[in-house]
Amino acid sequence: MSLNLTSAAMIRAFFREEICKPLVKNRPQDALNFAPDKTADTYYVPARRPRMSRADMEAMVDLSELDQLGKLWEQSGCRFSGEIDTLKAITQALLDESRDSDDGTSDSLSEYVYQMW
Amino acid sequence: MTSQRNILGVSAFYHDSAAAILSRGEIVAAAQEERFSRKKHDPRFPKHAISYCMEEAFIEAEDLALVAFYDNTPLTIDRIIRNSTTVSPQGEECFSNALKSALGGKLHLRESLKNVLGQDRPLWFVDHHISHSASAFFPSPFEEAAVVTADGVGEHATLSIGYGSGNTLDLISEINYPHSLGLLYSAFTFYCGFKVNSGEYKLMGLAPYGKPIYADLIERHLIDIKEDGSFALNMAYFDFPLGQSMISEKFCDLFGGPARERESVISRREMDLAASVQAVTEKIMLLITNHARKLTGSKNLCMAGGVALNCVATGKIWNFGDFDQIWVQPAAGDAGGALGAALYADHVGLGSKRTVQARGSQNASYLGRRYSPGSIQAVLDREKVVYAQADNVEARNRLIAKALADGLIVGHFSGRMEFGPRALGARSIIGDPRSVEMQSKMNLSIKFRESFRPFAPIIKYDRVSDYFDFQHESPYMLVVAPVNEARRTDFELNLNEDNMDMIKIVNHPRSDIPAVTHVDFSARLQTVHPEDNPELYGLLNEFENLTGVPVLVNTSFNVRGEPIVESPADALRCFFRTEMDLLILENFLIFKDKQAARDTDMSWKGEFELD
């Protein structure tokens, strides 16, 4: 099995170009709160999704269904929908490479991807 | 939708992959992949566990109404990206690692399921903390309850408070990553030289050897705690968002130096740190559950998530909290998510009615495989093992009780395997709790683990208050309670000693059941009810008839780093590698001293990564 660094390089490029660089200009204010705000009354927030409907559960698909990933990404409340094409490309690359792995199963994929790094 | 309403739940790619199956709302089977793969905390796709569940339910793939998976992957990736943007430009490595982990096997989930099942089935996805909450509430014996879950992290949430009633369940509020009680505890686990996601039990067991002298320091610098139990970590002290270490240099500076090297001597500092983070955890859990009581108005509490396995904290909630009844999912960690996802899909997704059972619907968590006498005998004959047979349960229990009373250590393999991290008598090593040397012997010669670690008692449910300051049942060994004062000796632990001889301490009698009395006179209880396990209750009866004591030592049937045994072959292997004296494989009795000499090569220890 030959190692193809395409997807690794893509992920890194994605991080640098799509995340880090824009961040310099406009760091998301609410991305993560890293310092306690001791003046706050509480740190609880309302549950993001109090209950899932049958439709919610059915609508989610696994990541191999790339054509639906963008829609799901947005439905799930993700902020970075603009980068979905890049993420889809990364996912496709990972999928393609794993098909060349010894048995093509998910069990081997994690290890395979690990080796790529 | 098939008429049988069979639902397969799957948890994978976090820790402790597992599968569970429901049939017409009944929990038919559940098991962790590690028991079959023999890799502890195995996170891989649980193909063996799924196969077992399908076999136990006697169904084929076409009989499955749906498969419920415990995760919302896009949200998990969203959290990874938010985390990375916040810590960038340092987070590149973390981003890479987290993304490959989040994508990993999930890319092939549908394909992996098809490989095991032979065909596609409808695949539903249930959020992480909703699954945890469902695993806590739906199998509980309560019509309605407050539901609290806490772990390291799910998609975004690290803790949730909800309310369940009938077949509905709603989350009300949550605390989001990186503010995590589970990760705070794991940070101290790491700092004290234990393995994260595995050594948290050890830290809890170590806590009674120390004084909580750092608790104030933790509250002043590491975490801000509100009166409602909500909290925020000061991330200057933690490096887990960067993915390289749990803690920062600032954390080490605060507590006086670098982290303890794994397997090195445990010092006074680690003992006091363990006591301190345990005290803070108990305080927070008590505040959170009291807040949940106010939010929901319920007097019943259900809990799940890895933090719910902190049975010392649960004991405090029993004693000092506002609830009349508490039920903790025995597979509270990620394994239980498989069960929770299936239950949520059934009750909320399909709207199936929920029937509350007086003792809950978890079948006492005996949800794994039972091996037939024929299959066991085949293994014994193949391995040329000398055995006796005792088919009558009462006679067999009398023999086992006599052996225990004579000081023998017994491997007890009986009935269906437990679901969850605790051995509840089906895959257990048991012994006489009156023995002063039992704790160190079991730790060092049977389990090959650290000498300080305590053992749990199993006791007849109707005798619990005769031995412990606890008036309730604890069928899943998820509560710590004190031994009755009248049973204690005048033992006093010197909490100032720097170089503690732990073997000397554990060999010092602390009560009339010393082997199960921790150094602070506490014990992690399992109460046994005849409706849950009549054979085990019968064994306790026989032991009581002989000795007057309705208590036994119970520890999991494995050695350090090994998953609990699943099969007779696993049990035999473990039996011959350790100093157990007698092995019970259902109706077969195997005495060590009747066996031909076996290979004493100890190189097998390398098979299991130390936890």
Description of the molecule:
The complex is a heterodimer of chains A (117) and B (611). Chain A has 117 residues and is mostly helical. Chain A has a domain at 1-27 and 65-117. In chain A, 54% of the residues lie in helices and 2% in strands. The longest helix of chain A has 20 residues, at 6-25. The model of chain A is unreliable at 1-6, 27-32, 76-82 and 100-117 (pLDDT under 50). Chain B has 3 domains: 6-139 and 337-364, ATPase, nucleotide binding domain (Nucleotidyltransferase, domain 5, 2-Layer Sandwich), CATH 3.30.420.40; 181-328, Nucleotidyltransferase, domain 5 (2-Layer Sandwich), CATH 3.30.420; 373-607, Carbamoyltransferase, C-terminal domain (DHBP synthase), CATH 3.90.870.20. In chain B, 35% of the residues lie in helices and 18% in strands. Chain B contains 20 helices and 21 strands. In chain B, the strands form 4 sheets. In chain B, strands 13-21-20-14-15-19-16-18-17 form a 9-stranded mixed β-sheet. Chain B has a 5-stranded mixed β-sheet with strand order 3-2-1-4-5. In chain B, a hairpin with a 6-residue loop joins strand 1 (6-11) and strand 2. The two termini of chain B are 43 Å apart. Classes of the chains: A mainly alpha (117), B alpha/beta (611). The interface between A and B is large, with 64 and 80 residues.
Which stretches of chain A of 5+ consecutive residues score pLDDT under 50? 1-6, 27-32, 76-82, 100-117
Largest interface: A-B, 64 and 80 residues
Rg of chain A, rounded, reads 18 Å
Mean pLDDT over all positions of chain A: 57
CATH class category name of the largest domain in chain B: Alpha Beta
Oligomer: heterodimer
Write down the overall mean pLDDT of chain B. 92
Spell out the blueprint of helices and strands:
The complex is a heterodimer of chains A (117) and B (611).
Chain A: H1 6-25, E1 45-46, H2 54-59, H3 66-75, H4 84-99, H5 106-116
Chain B: E1 6-11, E2 18-23, E3 26-32, H1 33-37, H2 47-56, E4 64-70, H3 73-87, H4 92-103, H5 109-117, E5 123-126, H6 128-137, E6 144-150, E7 157-165, E8 168-176, H7 181-191, H8 200-206, H9 215-222, E9 223-225, E10 231-233, H10 249-254, H11 268-296, E11 300-304, H12 311-320, E12 325-328, H13 335-349, H14 373-382, E13 388-389, H15 393-405, E14 410-413, E15 427-431, H16 438-446, E16 456-460, H17 464-467, E17 479-482, H18 502-506, E18 522-528, H19 534-547, E19 551-556, H20 568-577, E20 582-585, E21 588-591
Parallel strand pairs in B: 1-4, 4-5, 6-11, 11-12, 14-20, 16-18
Antiparallel strand pairs in B: 1-2, 2-3, 6-7, 7-8, 9-10, 13-21, 14-15, 15-19, 16-19, 17-18, 20-21
